[in-house]
Amino acid sequence: MDQPELSDCAQQLTQILTRHGRDASRLLQILRDVQDACHVISAQAIDLIAVHLAVPRVNVEGVAGFYSFLSTRPVGEYQVLFSGNITDQMLGQDELMQYLCNKLWVEPGKVSEDGLVSIAGTSCTGMCDQGPAALVNGWVLTNLDRNRLDLIGELIRSRKPVAEWPPMLFETADNIRRADMLLGDALAPGAAIGAVLARGARETLAEMDKSNLRGRGGAGFKTASKWSFCHAAIVEEEGHVICDVGGPPERVIVCNADEGEPGTFKDRVLLNSYADLVFEGMTVGARVVGASKGFLYLRGEYRYLLNRLEGVLKRRREAGLLGNAILGQADFSFDIEIHLGAGAYICGEESALIESLEGKRGRPRNRPPFPVTHGYQGRPTVVDNVETFACAAKIAEKGGAWFAAMGTAQSTGTKLLSVSGDVASPGIYEYPFGVTVRQVLADCGAEDPYAVQISGPSGTCVSWKEFDRCIAFEDIPTAGAFMVFSRKRDVFDAVRNFTHFFAHESCGFCTPCRVGTALQQKIIDKIHGGHGTLSDLEELKRLGHLLKTMSHCGLGSSAANPVLDVLAKFPDAFEHKLAGLAFEPAFDLDGALETARKITGRDDEWAHL
Amino acid sequence: MTERQIRLATCSLAGCFGCHMSFLDIDERLFDLVELIEFDRTPLTDIKHCGPCDVGIVEGGVCNAENVHVLKEFRKNCKVLVAIGACAINGGLPSLRNNIDLWDCFQEVYQYEGGLEGGVVPNDPELPLPFDKVHPIYEVVKVDYFLPGCPPSGDAIWRFLTDLLAGREPKLEYEQLHFD
Ligand SMILES: Cc1cc2nc3c(=O)[nH]c(=O)nc-3n(C[C@H](O)[C@H](O)[C@H](O)COP(=O)(O)O)c2cc1C
Ligand code: SF4
Ligand code: SF4
Ligand code: FES
Questions:
Q1: Do A154 and A203 belong to one domain?
Q2: Which of A105, A278, A424, A487 would be a feasible disulfide site paired with A450, CB 3.0-4.6 Å?
Q3: What is the pLDDT of residue A489?
Q4: Distance between CA atoms of A143 and A133, rounded to whole angstroms?
Q5: Do A56 and A97 have their domain in common?
Q6: What is the ipTM of this complex?
Q7: A243 pLDDT exceeds 50?
C-alpha cells in the first residue's frame, strides 16, 4: 500500500525538480509544489531534493521546517486551516472550527485516522472583511458559517477534489467603500511608463522626490531616497561596482506582497483589481534605478491570485510593457517573476523576504548593509510595498506636485485602510492622509466604538479618548490595518490573540524574541486563566522593555506593543482579571495531580494540594 | 567567634543534585562561607524542615506534590528565594517528560516493564504524587533571583553569594555565564 504512493511521489518530485530547472534558489517554490502533490515533505523527498540541487541536506530540511505551510509530517489529504485573527474570533471562528472537527471526527491539530483530513489554525489570511475565513489545501474560503461547513464536510467526506468544489465557496470581494486618487480612476496600461520614457529617468526621480512619497509598508521611508541609493550602488560611468558579486552588475526590484500584518488586506485588493497599476509602478522603478529583474513576493495565502497575475504579466509582455525593449526603448528590458511565500509573517520584513526569495529560511539579515546596496543575491535591491508601487505609477504619470498637494506636509498622498471588526461596512477605504480616526469610524458605521487597533498587532491601540487623532506619519503611522472593537468587546481578548500571534510567528533566530514572545504569551495566558497578579503585570512591562530594546528585527521590537498599549490605556482590562495582589501559581496545583490520582487510585490527604 | 547572623537553606526538588555538587565546588571558600552564615535545612545538615532564613536556594523544578510543600515552606521562611540551575529555572532535564503522557509513562514503567510491583501501579500515600508535567519553580512561588547554568559553576555561585551577603545586587560576569 505504501510502496506505490512513495514511487508516485518520487515521480512527481522529478517532474517538479525539472519544472524548476533544478535551481537551488527556487527551493521554497519546489517544496511548495512537493507539499501540494504529496501532502508531506518526507525524509526521502528531502534526500532526493538535496542530491538534485547539490545542496546540503540540512538546508532543505531547514527550509521545510521553517514555513507553516510546509510539513515534514503528513497532513490530511484535505487540510483545513482556520484563520485565527481576532476579527475571525469575533465572528465565531473558534466555534466553527470545533463544529467542523466534530463533523469530521477529528481533533484540532491532528490528522484523522484515515488520513483524510486535518484541521488547525493559521495566522490572519487577509480576509478580515469577509471572515470567518479558512484555507483548504491553500485555497481561501470566505464567509464561513455552519451551512457552508456542512457542505464542506460533505465534499471532504466524498473526496471531491478541491478544484471541483462549488466556486461560491471561494468567492472573494474587493469591498471598496471609498475611492480617491489611487482607486478612483484607472490608469491606461503603459501611460506611466510612457511618461517616464518621455521625461527621462533622472527627471522622474526628481518628480518622486518632489512627491515626498513615503513607503506604505509600515516604516515610511522616503521612496525617492531608497531608489536613489539603489541606483548609486553601481556607479555606471566608471564601471565601478560597490557591491561586486561577480557577473554583470544588476539591480533588482522587489514588490513586497507578503501582507502578513493581521487585519491588513489592501494589497490583496490592489493585486486583484489594480495589478496593472502595481506592475506599472515596478516598471517605473526599474527604469529609474536601472533594474532588469523584478520579483513579486506573494504571500502563500493569496495563491488564488497567482493565475490571474500571471495572466496580467503575460498580457503586459505581449503589449511590450515588459520583457526586452519596453515600448520600443532598446536599452530598457525588465521582467517580473512571481514567488509564493508559504505562511511566514517574518517574510514581510524586507531582508527576510530576500532570504526567502533566494530559497532559504526567512531569517532577517544583519543590517547594514541594507538591501539597497546588498540585497537579492548580493545585488542592489529596492523592496517596496504594493501600494507604494501603485503610488509611484500615479506620480510618474501625473507628477510630484500633483501628488504632494494631497495629504499633509509629512504624509503626502492618500492611504488605503483595511477596515474590519465591529463596523457595518468592512472593506477598503482610501483617504488623503490626515483623516481623523473619528471620521473613518463614522464612515464605516462603527457600532459604539471603544478601541481601534491601527496598523495591526505591531501598531498602536487607540482608545475612544483619542479618536480625534489622525492617520499620518506625524501622528498615527499605519500600514493600513484598522480593526474596530466596540464597547461590548474585551480588549484583553485582542491582546491575548496578538501575543499568541507573535509567539507563533517569531522566527526563532534571536533569544530575546524567541523566548520573550513565549514568556509574554505564558503570562497573558496565566492572567486569562485567572491566576494573574500585580507582579505579573510588572513582569510584562519588564519583558516588553527587553523585547523592544534587544530584538534583532522589527517583529520582536514591536511584539510587546499590544500589551504595553493596553496596559497603559485600558489598565482595567488587565486588573479585572487579576486573582489578587500577592503571588499566585501559574496553574491549578490540585488539578495538575488529577491524572496521577486516577492512575494510582489514590485520594488520601497527600494526594491533594 | 563572631555571631553568624545570616541563615541559609538549600534543597533539591526535581533536580540531579548537580547544582549542589557545584556548590561544593567553591572548595576551600566553604570555610569563608561558614564564617558568614549558618546553614539551616540543607543536604549538608540533614535538617528536615526549613526555619526562618535569610536566603533559600532551590535546585530542581516541581514535579510532584511533595515538591510543592517543600517549596512553599521555603518561600514562607526565606526572605530571599533563589532558583539555581536550569531545572529550577525552566524545568530542565526532568521536563523532557512533559511531552509524554503520564498514563503512558506509568504503563511503560510499571506494566510493560517486567519485574516491578507485579505489574501494578503503586498507590502508597508515602510516595509523592506526580504532576502531569514538570514546572519551573517560578510558576508556583515568587522567585527573587535566577542563577543560570546546568549547573552554574562554583565560581558563579561564589560570586552570587558574596554579592548577596555583602548587600550588593548580584551580577555575574560574562565568563561566569557561558561555557565556550
Ligand atoms: C515583521 C515585519 C513584517 C513586515 N511585513 C511587511 C509586509 O507584509 N508588507 C510590507 O510591505 N512591508 C512589511 N514590512 C516592512 C518591510 O520590511 C519594508 O520596510 C517595506 O516592505 C518597505 O517598503 P515601503 O518602503 O514601500 O514601505 C514588515 C516589517 C517587519 C519588521
Ligand atoms: S526579533 Fe524575532 S523575528 Fe526578528 S530575528 Fe529575532 S527571533 Fe526572528
Ligand atoms: S540544573 Fe543541571 S546540574 Fe542542576 S539539578 Fe538540573 S540537571 Fe542537575
Ligand atoms: S483573515 Fe480573518 S481577520 Fe484577517
A1: no
A2: A487
A3: 96
A4: 6
A5: no
A6: 0.85
A7: no
